[in-house]
Amino acid sequence: MKTYLVTGGAGFIGSNFIHYMFNKYGDDIRIINLDVLTYAGNLENLKDIENRDNYTFVKGDICDKETVSRIFTENDIDYVVHFAAESHVDRSIKNPEVFVQTNVLGTAVMLNCAKAAWEQEDGSFKEGKKFLHVSTDEVYGSLPEGNGYFYEDTPYSPHSPYSASKASSDMLVKAYMDTYKFPANITNCSNNYGPYQFPEKLIPLMINNALSGKKLPVYGDGKNVRDWLYVADHAKAIDMVINKGRLFETYNVGGHNEKQNIEIVNIIIETLQETLDDSDSRKALVTKDLITYVEDRKGHDRRYAIAPDKIRKEIGWEPETMFKDGIKLTIKWYFAHEDWMKNVTSGDYQKYYNDMYKV
Ligand code: NAD
Ligand code: DAU
Fold first, then answer.
1. Can you say whether the dihedral through the CA atoms of 234, 196, 107, 76 is positive or negative?
2. Distance (Å, whole) CA 300 – CA 220
3. Pocket flag, ligand 1, residue 83 (CB < 6 Å)
4. Tell me, what DSSP letter sits at residue 100?
5. pLDDT, mean over the chain
6. Which helix (H) or strand (E) holds 177?
7. Considering only CA atoms, which of 150, 179, 208 is closest in space to residue 337?
8. 165 near 86, Cβ under 8 Å?
9. CA-CA distance, 82 to 32, in Å (whole number)?
10. How do residues 83-122 score in pLDDT, each as one tens digit?
11. CB contact set of 137 (below 8 Å; sequence gap of 6+)
12. Which residues have CB under 8 Å from 222's CB, separation 6+?
């Protein structure tokens, strides 16, 4: 039985990954989830699996060496799946330090503790161990409109404090692989969407605002392009890279699904219109009149687009969920989980929202 140490498993992608893994492997794996529960971490995301015998939650900080090394000493960890990070670009523009702390120093602690646990006397590493570092396409910078893709060998050119901190963490992983032959892979994925995404990010923010009849704040001219991937397809890619990825390699993950932000907002409005019952009073609120162009994000990257050729050819990964289906699944999930949305938008969220959008 393999033991996975998942960091940041109470966040959006981490919790989807944990669900994906238990659905696929059931009792044949063990997962330890290390999460400090920042504003983005939410144990409600894991309610249905929290009592499994093969699941353990540890509330702790990846920057805390003692906690992390204790987990390695007390458990024979086979795989680390490292999601834990500060993940929101706008927050990084307002408060960069915590991004360096968590994303760079936290990754250094995770790498050191895994190295200490897995390294043998002759400097080689125990068979079958792997550190999967979950990273982002934003490390590659920005592409011109309608021209070019991010490949694994595209030079790094991060622009925001978030992407700079993720780029630094990738470099640390690369340094461990080059210096120690530390067994790792890096995945650089495009924008995810789906259940459990915190409503500071474009898609859940627009769904939540539209359903409350609030303005839909589109940055700049709304023509920035992102490459959207349904989160379960990302979870599947990570599982496949753990099992089939060649050690020391980087794999780009994306589904060739580029859309301008304004297209996304229009699709959300149209899908909500189709999904809401005629008798639902919110139907009258959800109109394109809610779209409001607001001040652009500082240093706003124009376009991201992943070339997923390597992961497709070497590993056989393909995305399964088309955007038109994924967005329906996502909206249905938010309808079925209105309490989840209410809980995460109470308290500090309102303060964040008012500061960010100057309401
Ligand atoms: P998220 O913000 O939803 O979740 C992050 C999780 O990490 C939270 O549960 C939080 O509590 C936890 N965490 C933060 N600091 C921690 C610390 N010091 N110690 C322990 N836990 C801590 O993020 P997400 O969107 O799920 O992203 C997960 C990972 O995937 C990140 O590394 C991100 O860079 C990467 N990624 C995200 C996307 C995307 O579209 N969301 C795309 C590509 C890559
Ligand atoms: O590309 C992968 C990255 O995708 C991940 O590494 C990040 O963790 C994740 O947050 C995401 O970053 P983005 O900045 O692309 O995502 P966000 O949802 O914040 O914004 C998507 C686009 O929508 C971006 O061009 C900014 C725009 N936007 C966003 C918000 C929140 C708006 O126009 N209005 C908004 O209110």
1. negative
2. 9
3. yes
4. I
5. 97
6. helix 161-180
7. 208
8. yes
9. 12
10. 999 999 999 999 999 999 999 999 999 999 999 999 999 9
11. 150, 188, 189, 190, 191, 227, 252, 254, 304, 306
12. 260, 261, 262, 265, 293
Q: How far is the CA of 346 from the centre of ligand 2 (A)?
A: 22
Evaluate whether 163 touches 136 at the Cβ level (below 8 Å): yes
The one-letter amino acid code at 52 reads R
Domain architecture of the chain: domains with CATH: 2-193+230-254+300-320 (3.40.50.720)
Burial group, residue 81, by CB count within 10 angstroms (0-12, 13-18, 19+): buried
Examine the pLDDT at 359 and tell me if it is beyond 90: no
**Through-space distance between the first and last CA atoms of the chain, rounded to whole angstroms:** 52
Of ligand 1's listed atoms, the one at least distance from the Cα of 38 is 11
Ramachandran area for residue 299 (φ above 0: left; ψ -120 to 50: alpha; else beta):
left
The answer to whether residue 347 scores a pLDDT higher than 90 is no
Smallest Cα–Cα separation from 198: which of 18, 47, 349? Answer: 349
Atom of ligand 2 nearest to the CA of 264: 23
DSSP-based three-state secondary structure for 31: strand
Question: What SS3 string covers 238-275?
Answer: HHHHHHHCCCCCEEEECCCCEEEHHHHHHHHHHHHHHH
Tokens of 303: 């376009």
Q: Look up the pTM and report it.
A: 0.98
The conformation of residue 156, written as its DSSP 8-state character, comes to P
Catalytic residue among 138, 200, 227, 233: 138
Question: Is the C-alpha dihedral spanning 64, 67, 72, 73 positive or negative?
Answer: positive
Query: Looking at 137, 200, 233, 239, which residue is catalytic?
Result: 137
